[in-house]
Design brief:
Blueprint (H helix, E strand, L loop, with lengths): L11 H14 L1 H30 L4 H5 L1 E8 L2 E8 L5 H9 L21 E4 L22 E8 L2 E7 L3 H22 L8 H34 L1 E7 L11 H23 L5
Antiparallel strand pairs: 1-2, 3-6, 4-5, 5-6
Helix pairs in contact: 1-2, 2-7, 5-6
Length: 276
Amino acid sequence: MSEGQIAFEFDPESRSLLDQLFIRFGKAKVFAAVVEFFARESLVIAGKISRIVLQTLRQQGNLARSITGRGELIDGIPACRVGILSGAALQYAGVQEFGTKGKDPSSPYPTIKPKNAKTLAMPVEDSLTTSGVPRYEGPKQDPRDLKFELIARGNLVGRLVVDTAAKHVSKARVALANSVAARQKLRALKDGDRSPEARAVRAAAKKAARAYALASSRAGQAQLDAIDKNRTAYLLLRKLDLEPRHYLRDNFLKLLPDIARKLAVTIGRYLNGSAA
């Protein structure tokens, strides 16, 4: 994930106080104290941003829970790092923050285009968990019966819907095959054959015909019902651009005055000798 850095700029008075600290305690000790402060405060900041993300970004629970923080030195300067630093959410956290170039030319992320397929399959509705994470790797790994419906409108090629009638249609096909096989056996009988075997063949043919009629009727009704019941599982897109959300940057900036105040208090304690 690409990073954005926010620097603390010291006014002349604050710079003078900082120089006094360096003289009194040594730069290394002061920097270590600031890093320790950031290590504590970064977790507080991460918790606050995580709660904000849960409240404001729909279906991004996994992203919100992955936000953490730590204190460290960057180019020798004490720093506070807050964001998605590891885990599964890391693969999409950056594009959620910065969007793609089609929506924001300054984004480091290009427009998303299919690599090994003609379209992008974007999971929606029941294909996502309540946290907004895809339930399956893609349509090929989805165990549900999916049916393609052409839309061909702009960037939208079509959609894959959960075919609620598929099981009934499949049963009707099996019943048809059984009925055809039973009729073939029936036609093979000699006229006037009254043997037990012949009677069994005739009974099986009638039973198979009744089973097919019932299965066919159910399949027809299921297909009619599916017009209203079929749920969209995936939207098939030629490409995809995402708006930048800046859920980390904007929320961090809102918390920055409080962070600066707490840092000033910490530095003040050292200056007054209340910290070793």
